[in-house]
């Protein structure tokens, strides 16, 4: 059985995302499903390290009113020129934008995963950097 080049992609694996405002930490697993990259939440902890189980109240579809832990919130990314593009991301962070679906791109920048999300056009965008979780 042949292993695809994407299976050896340095972005595949576990990443830590920290919310700058609340200090909440999410552990995210980036993995392949066929030739597409997906991302799911493995755990969520408060700034003090206490495990929590938030729910995405305004999310629609399969993420509607389910616990964030275990949720696949990044999907459909395809490899293109060293970056993963053309996918979608659901904002799971509590607040006004929770449940918003946006276009998504991911690439490795200085040993960190750079997540770029945009809605409608790149003028309505945001980016975040995740550190490798060991």
Overview of this protein structure:
With about 130 residues, the protein is mostly beta strands. It has a single domain, classed as Lipocalin. About 0% of the residues lie in helices and about 50% in strands. It is built from no helices and 8 strands. The protein has strands at about 15-20, 25-35, 35-45, 70-80, 85-90, 100-110, 110-120, 125-130. An 8-stranded antiparallel β-barrel has the order 1-2-3-4-5-6-7-8. A hairpin with a 6-residue loop joins strand 7 (about 110-120) and strand 8 (about 125-130). It is globular, with a radius of gyration of 14 Å. It starts with 12 loop residues before the first strand and ends with a strand. About 20% of the residues are buried. The model is unreliable at about 1-5 (pLDDT under 50).
Compact description:
The protein has no helices and eight strands. Helices cover about 0% and strands about 50% of the residues.
Keywords:
134 residues; mainly beta; Lipocalin; globular
Could you tell me the number of beta strands?
A: 8
Query: Helix fraction?
Result: under 10%
- Taken from the alpha-carbon principal axes, the silhouette is globular
Number of domains: 1
Secondary structure blueprint with pairings:
Layout: E1 13-18, E2 25-33, E3 36-45, E4 72-80, E5 83-90, E6 101-109, E7 112-118, E8 125-132
Antiparallel strand pairs: 1-2, 1-8, 2-3, 3-4, 4-5, 5-6, 6-7, 7-8
